[in-house]
Amino acid sequence: MAQFFKAKPNKSKQTFAKQQFEIDHLDHLGAGVANHQGKVVFIAGALPGEMVSAQIVEQKKRHAKAKLLKVSQPSEHRIASSCQYYGKCGGCDLQHLAIDKQREYKQASLVTLVEKMGKTQARQIVPALAGEPWQYRRRARLATNYDRDTKQISLGFRALASANVVNIAQCPVLEAELSALIAPLNQSLNQLAGKRTLGHVELIRVESGTFVVIRITQTLSAGDIERLKVFETEHQVSLQLLSDHGQMTGLTQQELQPCYTLDDGSQLSFSAGNFIQVNGVMNRKMINQAIEWLDVKAGDRVLDLFCGVGNFTIPIAKTGAEVVGVEGVVEMVEQAKLNARQSGVADTPFYHADLSADVSEQPWLGHIDKLLLDPARAGAFESLQWLKKMKPKSVVYISCNPVTLARDCEPLIKQGYQLSKLGLIDMFPQTHHIEAMALFELAK
């Protein structure tokens, strides 16, 4: 039998009317939370104590999301943003809240998540580690977008909840020298014949200099290379090209590698693909606090998991402790070994291992005195399953995701550890992102 297409009735999305909401608190993602007709409603941009007009844009069984339309009764802690792109650019989302209140909110969110999800309480809530609220980022990745109509590229950050690029001339959370590069770099890139083949652009400013890394999808012409060399010379930067295959090429024979310096004089080199903390000042404070909390002493056996390029491993080695670094990215392991040599602790061992897999046969797994963890957002749940073999007296856990930190409290508590200290590291002011440090100690 022949089957014919029959159009179904057009069911357009339901349109909700504007409603009034009273904001009770902020969630851990920085959105205002209201209780409305028996349902929790999340409203980004709203603050506790405010009355706002908003329109529901997403309905779920137990919660909803709404778009903020107007603040009828503003909070006393609401401030005007100093950035012309705020609300358009998807980078910052808390510039409307005074910085001291930002930190109070983040600390409170961290404690609440650990208590509710982790089902434990810290014996001591430590004052937040904090630095400058502006001009703190030493590294940033900018997106590019080529417009076929205007034949121009935009350079900036992705728009909020969108793939569109917000064209920017400056950014107040970047270090001033990096922010000042954006407008002239945009102008220079738009003069290239091969501008439509450009990918993202990375800006880096560390002790060894200022670096501009441009991802290219096709080889640039000799003329374009000369134009970029002019920019490199005029702005005294090291400009490098990153191919689709991950190959880095400098424009000059004297290619430099970015290198940052720690308080103890350690010099850590890295490449554009390596992870480093974007806030250099806070990174140094974090390292010092981690070593203090672990109470590292000469002769201690310390294991540093997710060690990266040796950010914690090398400073710990300089205390005289026996430290081992383990990392899941091969290139970063090799970089960490190089960093150890150039920092005077060449005998520090580094290993490559998938820390989400079975590590029972790894040569570094065994009894240790102290453990440091600095995992990615996914957390360290799998690694903590091997605590019985390690038996450290104390564990310092650095987290960039309080949800997975709270989850990972469970295996630690089950193995007889107690949460001794917990505190915020305000690594990303003007955003909701929460970096934290927790100290777990084996109960006596």
Automatic annotation (TrEMBL):
Q: Which organism is it from?
A: Shewanella colwelliana
Q: Does the keyword Metal-binding apply?
A: yes
**Residues that bind S-adenosyl-L-methionine, according to the entry?**
277, 306, 311, 327, 354, 374
PROSITE patterns, sorted: SAM_MT_RNA_M5U (PS51687), TRAM (PS50926), TRMA_1 (PS01230), TRMA_2 (PS01231)
Chain's gene name: rlmD
Q: What is this protein called?
A: 23S rRNA (uracil(1939)-C(5))-methyltransferase RlmD
Going by the record, the broad EC class of this enzyme is transferase
Question: Which HAMAP family does the record match to this protein?
Answer: 23SrRNA_methyltr_RlmD (MF_01010)
Tell whether Disulfide bond is among the UniProt keywords: no
Enzyme Commission number: 2.1.1.190
Alphabetically sorted, this entry's keywords are: 4Fe-4S, Iron, Iron-sulfur, Metal-binding, Methyltransferase, rRNA processing, S-adenosyl-L-methionine, Transferase
Q: What does this protein do?
A: Catalyzes the formation of 5-methyl-uridine at position 1939 (m5U1939) in 23S rRNA.
Q: Where does [4Fe-4S] cluster bind?
A: 83, 89, 92, 171
Superkingdom is: Bacteria
